[in-house]
Amino acid sequence: MWSSGVFGPGVANAGFGRQQVRGESTPVTPGAEVIAAKQLLSDMFDAQQTGKTQAVQDARDKLNALREQLGDEKFKEVLNGLIDDADDKYLEFLRRLLKELYPDEDVTPPAPSPTPPRGGGGGGGGGGVSPGGFGPSESMSNKPITEGSKHFHYTPDKSNPGKKPENIWSGFSQGPDGNCITVSAIKASMMQFGQKPTDVFKDVKETSKGYNVTMRDGFKLSLTKDELMQAATHARFQGDDPAMMTDANFMYAASAKRAQMENNDGTAGRSFQAAMDSLNDGESPREGLDRLGLKGHYRPATDTDLRSSKVGTVEYGGHSMAVLNGRIELWGKRGGVPQSGIATVLF
After folding, report:
1. Where are the alpha helices (DSSP H) in the chain?
2. Statement: the pTM of the whole predicted model exceeds 0.70
């Protein structure tokens, strides 16, 4: 699996990663740069999806050479010219590439449209489940809501262990994709064990390349910092608490990495990108809890359990929701008491 950034580690911090390319570069004639860039980007995208590290490196070097010849402004024009015809996965690839190359500029194209959820709980705000179909809800905050994609600078912190979120409702919430199974699991685990990854997982250690995670069920995985950045973009969370969004993005990234290692849906093993896609297209009840390593820390519940303020999740109407203090969470707002469904409580 390729585990570095689209343009390799450290590129965005080193003069946009302009580097010496092996051999002489062929001058690009006017009008040919679009064709050349499109081919190189296609090669890089395909290599990334299949984990061909050397092919990614070769395409990256050639693309850097093309960028050097064209200059940043022209290079951005070429990339933006490819966006209109891009499908969802390729558009996501371009978004990450632009963000890595120009981290201080707002040059990223619009996010791809959400993937329609499959059976078993998708529930994206625009992904096939109507937010209005679960009864009334109320806002629990007057703070501005921002995107979670910028919140990926995570440092393990074991201070105040077990401290619950101040506002689990709007601190972070699901965006337009069908990843409600993962969102409800993260929210419930934060309220049961504490907000931080170091509370939910058995151990989190930072390494020179990223993080080593040991989950409560003994499952171990390693995440790169680039994968965490990818996850923050792909999760498409939103909220009003940057620290909570960072924590949630980390747990989403760990879930995606485990999905990749376990080949979730028979496709996630292809790449980290494929693993994230598998989380965003709808999942089955309790899979989100299992991928956080919480098997053995939950049980099937009754409606009475959830309505009596136990922490858990519930699935009905094609959507998965965290149940907190006897109320369902609905896209950053507090809903009413849960209806009958597939109920789970944590312990």
Report:
1. 33-50, 53-70, 72-83, 88-101, 180-193, 197-200, 225-235, 242-261, 272-280, 287-291, 303-307
2. no
Quickly list DSSP for 120-165.
T----TTTT--GGGG---EE---SPPEEGGG--------SSTTPPP
**Which residues make beta-bridge pairs with 298?**
346
* 154-176: average pLDDT: 97
Distances (CA, A) of 219 to 77, 133, 262, 265: 45, 37, 11, 19
Burial grade of 29 (CB within 10 A; 0-12, 13-18, 19 or more): exposed
**Paired strand residues for 342:** 315
DSSP 339: -
Sign, Cα dihedral of 129, 131, 132, 134 = positive
Task: Evaluate if residue 127 carries a pLDDT over 60.
Answer: no
Q: Which two tokens stand for residue 151?
A: 């919140």
